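Sat 14:20. Reprocessing the chain from the morning session after the first attempt stalled halfway. Input below, unchanged.
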Amino acid sequence: MASKNIQLSTRITEEDAAFLARLQVEDAHTPSDKVRALIAEARRRHEARRDYRSALERAHELLGSVLADLRTAEHAAGLHSELVRAVADWLPDTIAFLLSETAPAGGGRGKDPGEALRATERGLADRTFRLVEAVLRLGVTEAAPCYDPAAISARVDPVLALLDVLRTARNARRPATAGRPTTGGGTT
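Finished this time. Tokens:
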């Protein structure tokens, strides 16, 4: 059975009316068409499955036009950036993971709440370090394949210094007996 349409009347500000007039929505030309399209979009987002695939599709929708504009600008300028590409690949995946893992119906998945939080943290750590590794690989040479060839190399030295501090701190936490045979258990 088809749904019956009801009339809805509302008042909006001049700014909202101007926005609605400028808004480009596929197959929606009148203000009424646009409002129906906006309601349908809001309903779709509200009712969407909160699994990884749905969240990834939503992240691509959210970022798609920005990334397309960026790639179009790259094409027009004859430039390419592996840093931008790495972040553009990483961002939708990370957003989708976070949305799907923390969703009430998806994230808990019958897990104990503490384990669900630990699993989310592990997933975020995995994704974050994959991005860090990808960016650090760009620093192997002085001229990275970026808009600014020095964009990475100019930032690597502070990271390397931090890694040295981290390495020193980790070595200091190791027991003094590490690497030496232990005594005890009745042996003399």
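The mean pLDDT is 86.
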